């Protein structure tokens, strides 16, 4: 069964074979797979028949298998250096796009026993010419595989810039070793990874759309961890008959005047917790804690305006978690009939967007997105969770209780 994009599974600390495969056919472009070995700002590229000096990663090359073309890498997790915590699995196409590769998928197997330990199908590729397939990473002493499927329409140049790798690291050279089923013990002791050249300015990637099946994305992997990230909420009412408007508590032009408030609960690494919202003029600030600011209070929901938060990612290490949510201040008794889009736009990397599902409960507060600092990695998770306050309980207290913020609340109003 294929893993959803963004999900992860534990893998054994043994030699693993990572296979990138696709169905062969006329017009399919040339494809190459390789691995990026990342540790503490250092990086190495292993591909084109090469092997890492440690013996931990070896490119085995491509071969035909039952109507498919399979390009494989052997990753021996028993030989990966202790200081190395990520092996990013990458593929690129020459003179085409991944949309021309039917049935593209990644399969991870135990290289000794032959048993499958992970499987990920790259089903939604279109114009991308370079793709981060997945990654093997070490967390609390345990190796795991994450299905990534993040594409670059700028090819390896864009990918190299985001990872701080010189573009010529991907240029093929003569193979250093002949492929073997399992690498022999290294002839020499492991050598340190080569430091990357100064990184080029990040490039804009393909837009990332979060869904129920693929609810999360790493800003860190996209290079979107600096500068100002704008979080935008825009909305409109779906076309509904007048009878429905009466049930929803909306009449006439009032349906266009619903007032939604974008808010954010935050928890900093020093234990500070608080809220950014229009109520009580708690608009926050970007140049001092909490490094989150509400731009203003919009009542139109227009695509080019709407409600906006700015998060200063230059202070990302100060964040433990940020929960972005929206409340109905006035104009409706629930989110029913509302079509809303949330978009996160970091200065670097891809914009991240998702849509709210149809609301079927009497909800006046919706948790939109949870941004968490996961061991130094900044991850955005789609929540899109409608909450129903109990009688006498404010929307803010309701979302606090649902996510365990533990704050004390007092009534507030807009000024």
From TrEMBL:
InterPro entries assigned to the protein according to its UniProt record, in alphabetical order: Stress/Tellurium_Resist, Tellurite_resistance_TerA, TerD
Ranges of biased composition (kind: Pro residues): 178-201
Protein name from the UniProt record: TerD family protein
Domain TerD stretches: 1-163
Family label: Belongs to the CAPAB/TerDEXZ family.
Region (Disordered): 172-203
Pfam families per UniProt: TerD
């Amino acid at each position: 069964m294929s893993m959803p994009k963004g999900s992860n599974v534990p893998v054994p600390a043994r030699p693993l074979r990572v296979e990138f495969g696709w169905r062969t056919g006329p017009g399919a472009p040339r494809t190459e797979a390789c691995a990026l070995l990342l540790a503490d700002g250092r990086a190495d590229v292993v591909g084109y028949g090469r092997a890492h000096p440690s013996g931990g990663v070896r490119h085995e090359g491509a071969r035909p298998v039952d109507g498919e073309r399979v390009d494989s890498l052997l990753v021996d997790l028993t030989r990966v250096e202790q200081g190395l915590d990520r092996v990013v699995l990458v593929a690129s196409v020459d003179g085409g796009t991944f949309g021309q590769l039917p049935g593209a998928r990644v399969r991870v197997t135990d290289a000794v026993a032959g048993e499958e330990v992970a499987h990920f199908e790259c089903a939604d590729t279109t114009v991308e010419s370079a793709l981060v397939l997945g990654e093997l990473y070490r967390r609390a002493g345990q190796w795991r595989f994450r299905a990534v499927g993040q594409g670059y329409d700028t090819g390896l140049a864009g990918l190299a810039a985001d990872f701080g790798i010189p573009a010529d690291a991907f240029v093929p050279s003569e193979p250093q070793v002949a492929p073997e089923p399992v690498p022999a013990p290294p002839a020499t002791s492991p050598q340190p990874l080569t430091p990357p050249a100064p990184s080029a300015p990040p490039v804009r990637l393909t837009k990332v759309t979060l869904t129920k099946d693929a609810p999360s994305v790493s800003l860190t992997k996209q290079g979107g961890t600096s500068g100002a990230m704008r979080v935008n909420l825009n909305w409109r009412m779906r076309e509904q008959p007048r009878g429905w408007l009466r049930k929803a508590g909306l009449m006439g032009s009032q349906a266009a005047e619903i007032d939604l408030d974008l808010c954010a609960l935050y928890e900093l690494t020093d234990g500070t917790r608080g809220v950014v919202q229009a109520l009580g003029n708690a608009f926050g600030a970007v140049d001092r804690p909490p490094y989150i600011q509400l731009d203003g209070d919009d009542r139109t929901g227009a695509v080019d305006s709407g409600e906006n938060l700015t998060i200063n990612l230059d202070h990302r290490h100060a964040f433990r978690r940020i929960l972005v949510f929206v409340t109905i201040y006035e104009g409706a008794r629930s989110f029913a009939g509302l079509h809303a889009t949330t978009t996160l736009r970091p200065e670097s990397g891809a914009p991240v967007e998702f849509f709210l599902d149809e609301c079927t409960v009497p909800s006046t507060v919706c948790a939109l997105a949870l941004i968490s600092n996961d061991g130094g990695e900044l991850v955005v998770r789609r929540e899109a969770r409608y909450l129903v306050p109990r009688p006498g309980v404010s929307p803010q207290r309701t979302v606090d209780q649902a996510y365990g913020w533990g704050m004390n609340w007092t009534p507030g109003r807009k000024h």
